[in-house]
């Protein structure tokens, strides 16, 4: 019997394995419940007393050897599988897909930076507003059509709570909370209950500006807007102001720029007039200043407001406003090189 154990010991020492499966077979043969070692321990009682000591030592030797063998074989196979895996570490890495800014963000950032250079700060406010900040403080008469359900989204059952139709509401908040001089622009999303078409959408973005101080004049407004137009559309851009009406400004005007596509010669974008309308503006109505707690005898101010979609469409020759909201990658990818 001792000779048998010695044979097993030799067998264990000589054993090699190529796969984990080989090791498992080896373990089953020697170290499982019905394996050789269990069997030997069961046979131990048959061993004559005088041989028990030697036999026991040999059995323990075999048992330890089997365990060490299993551990070392598994260890080797693990290391081997790492070093021989199919990964080629010399291959170039996967390229990272860079996103692009949304065209509306590109143009908004550009406009914001122009007015930053003129000393305007940025103010933001809530998209869900009350009647006071969107209409009443801005001198809208009770019966003004903009207050109609047809033009404004009201929050159900709350006739006083609505989605802002312009970011002038932010300027009311600024006037209520700050003392002049005030020089600020408010970019943001606005909502109007309009049918969606290639030219209009129920969601769009505005940037409105406000400047209030002593002795602010219409000439200041005109010069500020001329600088802005040249910075955004190029040095050769000219502006023209046409009389208009807004409840919150007096006098009011609409500003055109020379068509950025044909340079003023006339094309189908400017409907052969050579001019493109881009914003509304005017001197802040004294009633508005008083509503917001600003002394209209001491201070005057100008305000202006523009739609970012319209300006982006003019700048990039985009013909359908709906493209801005569809998130079609074929459209968005075209702005990759713009910052
Ligand atoms: N709030 C106006 C609009 O939404 C734009 C505007 C702002 C006009 C300031 C004049 C002065 O159309």
Oligomer: single chain
Largest sheet data: 7 strands, mixed
Structural class: alpha+beta
| Distance, first to last CA | 86 Å
How much of the sequence is in beta strands?
A: 15-25%
**Considering the protein shown, what is the CATH homologous superfamily of the largest domain?**
Bira Bifunctional Protein, Domain 2
Reading off the top of the CATH hierarchy, the class of the largest domain is best stated as Alpha Beta
Q: Helix and strand succession? A: HHHHHEEHEEHEEHEEEHEHHH
Name the CATH architecture of the largest domain: 2-Layer Sandwich
Placed side by side, the strands forming the largest sheet appear as: 1-5-6-10-9-8-7
Radius of gyration: 41 Å
CATH topology of the largest domain: BirA Bifunctional Protein, domain 2
Q: Find the count of extended strands (DSSP E, 2+ residues).
A: 10
Number of helices: 12
Uncertain spans: none
Bound molecules: phenylalanine
Any idea what the shape is? elongated
Helical amount among residues, as a percent range?
40-55%
- Tally of separate domains: 2
Average pLDDT, all residues:
91
């Amino acid at each position: 019997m001792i000779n048998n154990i010695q044979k097993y010991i030799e067998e264990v020492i000589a054993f090699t394995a190529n796969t984990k499966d080989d090791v498992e077979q080896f373990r089953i043969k020697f170290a499982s419940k019905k394996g050789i070692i269990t069997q030997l321990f069961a046979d131990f009682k048959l061993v004559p007393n005088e041989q028990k000591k030697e036999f026991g030592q040999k059995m323990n030797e075999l048992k330890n050897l089997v365990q060490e063998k299993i551990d070392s074989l598994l260890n080797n196979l693990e290391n081997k599988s790492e070093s021989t895996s199919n990964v080629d570490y010399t291959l170039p890495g996967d390229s990272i897909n860079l996103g692009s800014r949304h065209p509306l963000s590109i143009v908004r950032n550009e406009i914001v930076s122009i007015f930053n250079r003129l000393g305007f700060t940025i103010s933001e406010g809530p998209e869900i507003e009350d009647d006071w900040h969107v209409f009443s403080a801005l001198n809208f008469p009770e019966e003004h059509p903009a207050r109609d359900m047809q033009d404004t989204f009201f929050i159900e059952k709350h006739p006083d709570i609505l989605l802002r139709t312009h970011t002038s509401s932010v300027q009311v908040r600024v006037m209520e909370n700050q003392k002049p001089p005030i020089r600020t622009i408010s970019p943001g999303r606005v909502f109007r209950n309009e049918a969606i078409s290639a030219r209009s959408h129920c969601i769009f973005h505005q940037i409105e500006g406000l400047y209030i101080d002593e002795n602010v004049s219409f000439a200041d407004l005109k010069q500020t807007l001329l600088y802005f137009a040249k910075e955004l559309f190029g040095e050769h851009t000219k502006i023209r102001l046409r009389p208009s009406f807004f409840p919150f400004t007096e006098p009011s005007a609409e500003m055109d720029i020379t068509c950025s596509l044909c340079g003023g010669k006339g094309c189908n974008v400017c409907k052969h007039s050579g001019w493109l309308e881009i914003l509304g503006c005017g001197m802040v109505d004294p009633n508005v200043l008083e509503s917001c707690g600003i002394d209209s005898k001491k201070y005057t101010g100008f305000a202006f407001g523009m739609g970012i979609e319209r300006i982006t469409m003019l700048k990039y020759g985009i013909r359908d406003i709906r493209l801005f909201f569809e998130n079609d990658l074929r459209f968005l990818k075209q702005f990759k090189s713009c910052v």
